[in-house]
Structure formats: structure tokens, C-alpha cells
Amino acid sequence: MGSSSSKPAAAKITPHDRAILDLKVQRDKLRQYNKRLEGVVEKELKLAKGHLAKGEKQRALLALRRKKFQESLLEKTVLQMTNLDELTMSIEQAMVEKQVFAGLAAGNQVLKELHKEMSLADVEKLMDETADSIAYQNEIDELLSTRLSVADEEDIERELDLMVEEETKAMLPSTPVSALPELERQLVEEDEVPVSTKKVAGKNRKTANGPMLA
């Protein structure tokens, strides 16, 4: 079976379209006639000049009369062309206005149908229900934000203790061991000497100082 190519359906020509087409055809014919008249006027003018150059005044006068007649026809043709253009534009404008009116009418009908499906009472009811739902949700959020579990409270206390400890450490000056006074370093060294060594050193100091009085 051969594949048949589907052709788009031709647009239907309305009486208005045909009227506009006829007016444009008539206008084009008048333009062609206008050009011929202009050629005749120019030709009669040359003839008049030629007869006058030859001294044939009567023939020159007759050529000028024919030229005048052609010019009157030319003026009528221009006027008719102007009328046809104005009429064509008026019809086209009226057709556009009709299409706009049809679009407005269709849109208005759609709005009416939508308004039937969405009455003012329904909109007010929906707005009230929405406001109630929002208020209810706000109450839930407020309750959840003010009531904490015991575990949450303990976590908060621990976090607070850590913050206090960090603040205390930050306020204390950091002093290196090398900056301690000489006496403090000696005390630190003595603390590191064993107890037995300290006793022997004490006896030696007493012997060196002499016997003690009874």
C-alpha cells in the first residue's frame, strides 16, 4: 500500500475575503489605467510643443485640449483609487474588530463558567478554612518550641557547662615554664627529688652547721 501524504486543508474563503480581493483587483486595474493616462498626457504635451515649434498653433491647441481631457480622467482615476484603498482598509479594520469582539466574547463566556464553578461564597469559605489551618499550625509550632524533653534539657545544661569552661580557660593567662621565677623552679625541682635523698641532704646540712645544743 502506498503512503498517502495528507495535505493541509485549504482555508475557507469567506464573502468578506472575496469582497476585499475584488476591491484590490479593481484598484490594481485603476493603477494600470492611471499609468496609461500619464503616458497619453506626456505624449500630447510633446505633440503640442512640436506643433508649436513648427508654427502650427491650431494643432498645438488641439493637442493641449486632448491633454487637458486626459488629465481630468487622471484626476478621477486617482480619486477612485483613493476611495478603493480607504474602503479596503475600512473592511479589513472591521474584520479585525470583529475577530477581537469574538475573542472578547469567548473570554467573557469562559470567565462566566469559571465564576459558576468558583462562587464568592466558596472563595470566602476557603479563605476562612485556610486562615484556621494556619492558626492551628502556628499553635502546634508554639507548643513544640516551648516543651522540651528531659534529654534536651540535659544536653542544654552540658552545652552551657562546656561554654563556661571554655570562657574560663580563655580568661586565664598562659605562662610558660621558662618564665617562672628561679625560686619556683627550685621548688619544682625539689618536689621531683625522692624523699630519702632529701633526708640525707638535711643531715649533711646539720653536720656542717655544728652540733646542736641539748
From TrEMBL:
GO BP term, example: vesicle budding from membrane
Region: Disordered, residue numbers: 189-214
Family matches, as Pfam families: Snf7
InterPro entries in the record: Snf7_fam
Keywords carried by this UniProt record: Endosome, Membrane, Protein transport, Transport
The keyword Membrane is assigned to this record: yes
Highest rank taxon of the organism: Eukaryota
Annotated Gene Ontology cellular component terms: ESCRT III complex; multivesicular body
Chief location category: membrane
Localization in the cell: Endosome membrane
Family to which the UniProt record says this protein belongs: Belongs to the SNF7 family.
Protein name: Vacuolar protein sorting-associated protein 20
Source organism: Linnemannia gamsii
Name of the gene this protein is made from: VPS20
